[in-house]
């Protein structure tokens, strides 16, 4: 029985990147032997085990053969006779198909080191076309490694385009598409994810609601990368691309339904496209108060503050002539100083209390707007 460190840990080590997780492949072992050594089996479709002390994953060497549509449409063969080269051959990219032995020896049968040096994302074998999820995975790797100069090999992009043309994206479940999309939003240059998918024709199939001009990258793609330089929260990045796309709310709603976007992501985008799409201007306190009410700012302050963070980034990017985010933040802070308890103690109740609260809020807003208007240039 031999064990090897494989995949991303080897790749990231060679790129001098932080190793996030360590996966291993085991050659020449059976499930019974693994359990006898204290490993706990967790894989259902193929034998994957957790190390009794480290908790790291150890998978028995296996081969896969396409037998039907979908991610479960594979015949998996895990056997002590499967060697390391066969196991590595089933992987997606050459840079993910390297292994390191216990003595430190690098095993690289498919040229992963060569492609690391060339900054190239290259498929391992023609079997790449058997799994349509690899289209999204390659795009995600491109977004992660773009700062290091990586790009998709023309031959691999051609295979991806072929898979799209054959309709293979239809095999993917909503959950698998969203999982890759969410991971892409966490990458240093998330816009590259969409650029690669557009280059192979997948963008139009996956989310045609996001417009893509014939010649230039869309504004939302450029803003997404600009936003990623300063903002690490994936949900703000998600809402940001929709804010910059400026589509009608029903377009986002269609995508959110199709891919079952979690509420914590969709809700902020809905706010940015709906009541938040027209920030107030001018000096009418009622307009500013109405905006706070329409955006549910006072009942959901955390969400509203996230929206203000996003709005500030958008105004900076678009060089807005009359930015509202900073003033809205000040208005929001001052409105929250209005105490309903103090008004109750003054004898107000019922409908009259509600009116007094609104009146007090308008007054503090008017003070903020007056200060803003009279600030020296």
UniProtKB/TrEMBL annotation:
Residues 149-210 form the tRNA nucleotidyltransferase/poly(A) polymerase RNA and SrmB- binding domain. Residues 3-121 form the Poly A polymerase head domain. Its cofactor is Mg(2+). Keywords: ATP-binding, Magnesium, Metal-binding, Nucleotide-binding, Nucleotidyltransferase, RNA repair, RNA-binding, Transferase, tRNA processing. Pfam families: PolyA_pol (PF01743), PolyA_pol_RNAbd (PF12627). One of its GO terms (biological process) is RNA repair. One of its GO terms (molecular function) is ATP binding. InterPro entries: CCA_bact, NT_sf, PolA_pol_head_dom, PolyA_RNA-bd, tRNA_CCA-adding_enzyme. Belongs to the tRNA nucleotidyltransferase/poly(A) polymerase family. PANTHER family: MULTIFUNCTIONAL CCA PROTEIN (PTHR47545:SF1). This is Multifunctional CCA tRNA nucleotidyl transferase/2'3'-cyclic phosphodiesterase/2'nucleotidase/phosphatase. It comes from Candidatus Macondimonas diazotrophica. The lineage of its organism: Bacteria, Pseudomonadati, Pseudomonadota, Gammaproteobacteria, Chromatiales.
């Amino acid at each position: 029985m031999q064990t090897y460190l494989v995949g991303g840990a080897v790749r990231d080590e060679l790129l001098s990147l932080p190793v996030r997780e360590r996966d291993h492949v085991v050659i020449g072992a059976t499930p019974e032997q693994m359990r006898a050594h204290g490993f706990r089996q967790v894989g259902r479709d193929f034998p994957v085990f957790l190390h009794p002390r480290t908790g790291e994953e150890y998978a028995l060497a296996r081969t896969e053969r396409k037998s039907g549509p979908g991610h479960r449409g594979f015949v998996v063969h895990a056997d002590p006779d499967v060697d390391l080269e066969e196991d590595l051959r089933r992987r997606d990219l050459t840079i993910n198909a390297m292994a390191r032995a216990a003595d430190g020896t690098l095993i690289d049968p498919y040229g992963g080191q060569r492609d690391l040096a060339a900054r190239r994302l290259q498929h391992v074998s023609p079997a790449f076309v058997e799994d349509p999820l690899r289209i999204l995975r390659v795009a995600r790797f491109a977004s992660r490694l773009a700062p290091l100069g990586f790009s998709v090999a023309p031959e691999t992009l051609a295979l991806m385009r072929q898979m799209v043309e054959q309709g293979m994206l239809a095999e993917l479940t909503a959950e698998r598409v969203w999982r890759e999309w969410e991971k892409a939003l966490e990458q240093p240059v998330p816009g590259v994810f969409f650029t690669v998918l557009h280059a192979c024709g997948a963008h139009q199939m996956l989310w045609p609601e996001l417009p893509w001009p014939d010649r230039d990258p869309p504004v939302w793609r450029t803003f997404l990368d600009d936003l990623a330089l300063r903002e690490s929260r994936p949900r703000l990045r998600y809402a940001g691309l929709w804010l910059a796309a400026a589509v009608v709310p029903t377009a986002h709603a269609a995508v959110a339904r199709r891919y079952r976007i979690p509420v914590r992501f969709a809700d902020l985008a809905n706010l940015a496209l709906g009541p938040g799409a027209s920030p107030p201007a001018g000096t009418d306190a009622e307009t500013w108060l109405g905006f706070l009410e329409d955006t549910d700012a006072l009942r959901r302050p955390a969400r509203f503050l996230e929206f203000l963070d996003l709005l500030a980034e958008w105004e900076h990017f678009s060089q807005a002539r009359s930015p509202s985010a900073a003033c809205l933040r000040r208005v929001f802070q001052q409105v929250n100083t209005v105490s309903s308890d103090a008004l109750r103690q003054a004898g107000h109740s019922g409908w009259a209390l509600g009116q007094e609260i609104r009146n007090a809020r308008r007054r503090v807003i008017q003070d903020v707007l007056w200060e803003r208007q009279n600030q020296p240039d």
